[in-house]
Amino acid sequence: MSDESPDGVPHHVPVPLHCAAWIRVIPYAGGVDGILQSGFKIYSFGDKDIPDVAFSDSVLGNTTVDDPRDLRRLRRLFGSLSSVALPPDETRDLIVRSKDKEI
User: Fold this and answer.
1) How many domains does the chain have?
2) pLDDT tens profile 31-42
């Protein structure tokens, strides 16, 4: 059985599950600002009657975030992380290059 899909991409290489879902690596050169934060998800429903909400994950549990100031902070953090993250194609290439290396 081949380790590659029909398009020649190894199965372990991230491909978008949906046009808006990507995996991106933040390289060490990008700095540690924001990386040490807990994970979070921001949900925006595109409807003014349904407010945005975020969920923050940590080892101590999950927190629902709905305060507009906190949502702005999370959006700024996401913007900062996105600005230093590798683009999806470079992330894929990095994963392919390092798949056989010990990290």
Assistant:
1) 1
2) 666 566 678 999
